[in-house]
Amino acid sequence: MDLSKVSQIDVRKGMLVADLVKEMSGSGVMGAGKLAHAVDIAEIAIKDPNTVLFFGIAGAMVPGGMKKIMIDMLEAGWIDVFVTTGANLTHDLVEALGYHHYQGRADVSDAELHKKGLDRIYNSFMPNNVYEGMEDFFEKHWDELSKDKMNIKEFLWKLGSLMPKDKPSILRICYEKKIPIFCPAISDSGIGLMVWGRIAQGKKISVDAFDDLKDILDIAWDDKKKFAVWYCGGGVPKNFIQQAMQFAPRSAEFGIQITMDRPEPGGSSGAELREGISWGKMSEKGNFVDVICDVTIALPIIVAALKTRLK
Amino acid sequence: MDLSKVSQIDVRKGMLVADLVKEMSGSGVMGAGKLAHAVDIAEIAIKDPNTVLFFGIAGAMVPGGMKKIMIDMLEAGWIDVFVTTGANLTHDLVEALGYHHYQGRADVSDAELHKKGLDRIYNSFMPNNVYEGMEDFFEKHWDELSKDKMNIKEFLWKLGSLMPKDKPSILRICYEKKIPIFCPAISDSGIGLMVWGRIAQGKKISVDAFDDLKDILDIAWDDKKKFAVWYCGGGVPKNFIQQAMQFAPRSAEFGIQITMDRPEPGGSSGAELREGISWGKMSEKGNFVDVICDVTIALPIIVAALKTRLK
Amino acid sequence: MDLSKVSQIDVRKGMLVADLVKEMSGSGVMGAGKLAHAVDIAEIAIKDPNTVLFFGIAGAMVPGGMKKIMIDMLEAGWIDVFVTTGANLTHDLVEALGYHHYQGRADVSDAELHKKGLDRIYNSFMPNNVYEGMEDFFEKHWDELSKDKMNIKEFLWKLGSLMPKDKPSILRICYEKKIPIFCPAISDSGIGLMVWGRIAQGKKISVDAFDDLKDILDIAWDDKKKFAVWYCGGGVPKNFIQQAMQFAPRSAEFGIQITMDRPEPGGSSGAELREGISWGKMSEKGNFVDVICDVTIALPIIVAALKTRLK
Amino acid sequence: MDLSKVSQIDVRKGMLVADLVKEMSGSGVMGAGKLAHAVDIAEIAIKDPNTVLFFGIAGAMVPGGMKKIMIDMLEAGWIDVFVTTGANLTHDLVEALGYHHYQGRADVSDAELHKKGLDRIYNSFMPNNVYEGMEDFFEKHWDELSKDKMNIKEFLWKLGSLMPKDKPSILRICYEKKIPIFCPAISDSGIGLMVWGRIAQGKKISVDAFDDLKDILDIAWDDKKKFAVWYCGGGVPKNFIQQAMQFAPRSAEFGIQITMDRPEPGGSSGAELREGISWGKMSEKGNFVDVICDVTIALPIIVAALKTRLK
Fold first, then answer.
1. Alpha carbon distance B275, B281 (integer Å)
2. Strand pairing partners for A57?
3. Which residues on chain A are in Cβ contact (under 8 Å) with B215?
4. CB contact under 8 A, A262 and C262
5. Helix/strand/coil for C164
């Protein structure tokens, strides 16, 4: 075994994030070493024009302050396929409509918050009146939104086309740059509820539950490409990409997973990336890493280091 | 503050699960006290004919040995609404088609497993050839499966109607007992892939992505009922029920959550039930508990105690 | 690979804990399979008169309702060497002096509790006036306690000899049965504070910090014995036993670890048992299992099953 | 409730760590907000000459690449009292003697590592021959080390005085700057084993187990000072400081905790800092934060930001 020494991390006054990550890379161990490894993998995958990057993100990432980072990544062309949860897109819509999330606390009286009309997401709060704003938005744009038969990706692009241009949003940037955006459980979200509200009034919309599979699997089916997967949290976004990799002619060669979930209870969210080798989702010669960290800590560091490193 | 003493748990030779749970209830603290609390809540909710129990379950529960328990709970009429993941139903289908899951290990070479055609789910294995069996099944039954326009619940009932009668399955029991079964992200599963396989051959099926919302919200809309929620794991099943509770005239009065996820990263899966009070999903006077435990340990204990306690 | 099928756990009315564990053993997977595996290992180790069982337990186990279980295990002769934290022994002393712990909640105002003189340990409370009772006890027994030069084990046996006979305690049973009891960080506890209180008054006591190593290593040095380790939680108790195994002529052949800590941050508490193979602490042919579970849930189940299985 | 908006984190090319932390502070939520809060608290506590900072650190921090950071913090005078584990000091000694830790992997054969003489600490390795080097060191310096009756702090300073000057070490810097260093469970470590090795040869040493309490409590007893606590990991280092705070005339006004442990199982390591309010360990008006993160990720960021911010 040819082993590198653990070099003790040297932290300096006025240090760049990119240089701190280089120090972490030198240490090579524990969480710091893995975080640095994730930056290396992302850099290779993004630089290679032949690598398709599937980015899956779950969790309350907009109330968690990650919206601009996601938009930047989409805008810079780092992400080729974006898969997320309905909640994530609902919070994106909420901010695009001019509402805000607020800094709160977790050790509060939830009954008090309820009286004040504040919905808690761990230590952030969302004013409950966003639902009224969303109602108005869907009411106003319903005819446009519902006029065609669609799959979910097309529905989300349509939604993106209706977003205000002055407030950057995930939905708008995906629409503008025609980045495929998948959200299999879209009905499980505030956006879903808004659609249900119209249906309950007798209005119609036709969005197919299975049709997006064709779109994502067509992308994965390309045997001239290499594939990279990058997961922030688990849930449907991770699993939906993993199953595309299972049926791709070439399994994923690059992989980053940032999660706080554990593997032992057996769920997909906490599963180590290497488990995907057995399924043919990940390449056995692949370069991948599991970073056990809160996404709101790890993602800004990784992206700050990447922005500095990439031309 | 009127406080009960912690009574030291007394464990005896030949002890019933139900009696162990009673001892845990006497201790009243840490994980044991919470587990016992969950049994108390479930007992009240199940006994009350006026309480509708929404049961959400995520994770690899069939490979984890929980299938019979789920079927028993459905058969006994404990569960009024069943919400799960596509993976859970795919594993259910796999066993109904005569395949098995196998006892494995996590510290193995995934590359070796891949060569042997074994897909790893933490420490259980599934033979990869189940996909062939599923292909045959969908090929054979496609006309029946695809003939009507449906929502996902109707699609799953249809699937259940086609399951062999001699091999008890979740899908079949939900169909037979007409228990509403929801799986918003059904496309994110082996079942989804089978449907895609047919679509890729030019076949048609029409399953609506939003239409199930009407069904679940109609159930939650009943202002003569009380509501109980019971979550094993998080993900879409939990969130889909929680959002139904948000728009129910009466928020949930009973709640059980069994999870290994943490609240601090801010995702829905790890969120404490009390957070739902702020949203109007959980009643501020509700009786609920978060059990931080592996579902495959906690659920059998809870169900064994309930079977003994309930007439 | 010769694989066993996952058999679906069958839970029945009036079921014994021992029979539930048998069902979990049949499933063989996830947390349930590991819990059942732990019972099997413990049964073999306890039955074999030639196997020395080192039991390490950390965490607030007396406020968590585990005291009687620990006493039963000591009384039944299952445990040959007991290693624990000062906190655990302090809570044991507190109850032996006639005080109680109380069932509380975690989502409370800690400032309110402070005003009421209640010290919180997650969701259990301890009245702060226990410190007065301990003061009186140490004041009364100081001459006896401090008269000899001792190591920590001898100090704890002495303390045990002074415990009331009518209130079973860990300290008393270890003294009575001459079970070696180790607590390297005894100064880090209420008991330590009581000793400091006397020292601050100018009184003397002479307890050596290193001398216990001789006692525990003498036990581990016996090359005619086999060794079993059983950890509930990590911390010093686990590590102190592991280091004894490192220098034993035969590394541990049986091992059980029950913990909620993770391996990835690199600390000893969350380390998988198999890591000990590299150090020569665990035998590479050993039979061991890591159960990721709250001790207050797992330990009562394991002990109930063992009591039923063992003659 | 007067609430601040969550501002979306803006990450830029060539960004300083200190500026990234400022962005995290603006977001104010989830893990990122807490990490930034920790920097704010540390800055106030370090700048205030009247505040005594107790720093407790557990876990394999030297093999994890954190040694230089700890030494820098001690050297800069940020830390007034240092409390750690025996393992941490043993790894420090090992590197001071010229040995290294190595970058490894966790998914390896531990039996192979054992054959190669490599001891695994999650994904770092330590060559087993360090024990020979330590033997030689203790043999050579025994007379000097053992000549006086001591408490553990004095023993560690003595050890520090014997460390090579050309290889910076925690032990040496604490000795040189006369920073009180506590390690209640010193016998539970490689250093402990070395002492035992000499005792087993009939040599003598007299180190008192309780005597350090006087030293740490004298520091905490100063009613003209304010107190800050900073924990990296839990275990004895955290608990030993917390108990000093319990008996201090003024409970701690500043607190930082970085941990991956959970509160629910009830142990001290995972307990939220606010629990300390009930005990009188933390001030109810204190400024404190729990950062749920791998120390090897969080600590370098915090220290890099602090170095930039502090003159």
1. 9
2. A84, A232
3. none
4. yes
5. coil
What ranges in chain C are assigned the alpha helix state H?
A: 17-27, 30-47, 67-75, 86-96, 110-116, 130-146, 152-161, 170-176, 190-200, 212-220, 235-246, 275-279, 295-309
Among chain A residues, the shortest Cα distance to D297 is held by A32
Pairwise CB contact (< 8 Å): D275 & C120: yes
ipTM of this complex > 0.90? Answer: yes
What percent of chain C is modeled with pLDDT above 90?
A: 98
pLDDT in tens, A168-192: 999 999 999 999 999 999 999 999 9
Q: Which structure tokens are listed for C11?
A: 């839970």
Residue type, D61: M
Please write the tens of the pLDDT for every residue from C52-99.
999 999 999 999 999 999 999 999 999 999 999 999 999 999 999 999
Nearest to B278 among A110, A152, A279 (CB): A110
Mean pLDDT rounded to a whole number for chain B: 97
Cα–Cα dist B9/C158, whole Å? 27
Distance, in Å, from the CA atom of D222 to the CA atom of D224, rounded to the nearest integer, reads 6
Q: Hey, which residues 246-265 in chain A have their CB within 8 Å of chain B?
A: 247, 260-265
Q: How many residues does chain B have?
A: 311
Query: Treating both helix axes as pointing N-terminal to C-terminal, what angle do B235-246 and A190-200 enclose, rounded to 10 degrees?
Result: 50
Which one is catalytic: A13, A281, A307, A311? A281
Q: Which residue in the set B210, B266, B294 is minimally distant from A64, CB to CB?
A: B266
Cβ distance of D266 and C120 shorter than 8 Å: no
Residue boundaries of the structural domains of chain C? 17-309
CATH superfamily for D51-98+130-294 is Deoxyhypusine synthase (3.40.910.10)
Of C64, C100, C293, the CB nearest to B5: C100
Query: Is the CA virtual torsion A23, A27, A28, A34 positive or negative?
Result: negative
Enumerate the active-site residues of B: 281
Q: Does C122 touch chain B (CB under 8 A)?
A: yes
Strand order in the sheet with D102-103: D102-103, D124-127, D118-121
Distance CA B132, CA D75 (A): 65
B154 lies within 8 A of chain A by CB: no
Task: Tell me how far apart the alpha carbons of residues A153 and A215 are, in angstroms, rounded to a whole number.
Answer: 9
Average pLDDT estimate for A273-281: 98
Sequence-distant (6+) residues with CB within 8 A of D11 are A68, A69, A72, A300, A303, A304, A307, D20, D23
Check pLDDT > 90 for residue C310.
yes
* pLDDT at residue D211, rounded to an integer: 96
- Shortest Cα distance from B272 to chain C (angstroms)? 11
Q: With beta carbons less than 8 A apart as the criterion, state whether A208 and B206 touch.
A: yes
Contact indicator for D169, D93 with CB cutoff of 8 Å: yes
- Contact check, Cβ <8 Å, B29/D292: no
- Name the residue among B152, B276, B278 with its Cβ closest to that of A209: B152
Non-local CB neighbours of A216 within 8 Å, separated by 6+ positions: A81, A83, A180, A182, A240, A241, A244
Q: Nearest C-alpha of chain A: how many angstroms from D211?
A: 33
Q: What's the CA gap between C177 and C77, in Å, rounded? A: 9
pLDDT for C1 beyond 70? no
pTM over 0.95: yes
Q: Is C122 on the interface with D (CB under 8 A)?
A: yes
Superfamily of domain A17-309 in the CATH hierarchy: Deoxyhypusine synthase (3.40.910.10)
Residues 6+ apart with CB under 8 A from D232: D55, D56, D57, D58, D59, D61, D66, D258, D259, D295, D299
* Spatial distance between the Cα atoms of C156 and C162, rounded to a whole number of angstroms: 10
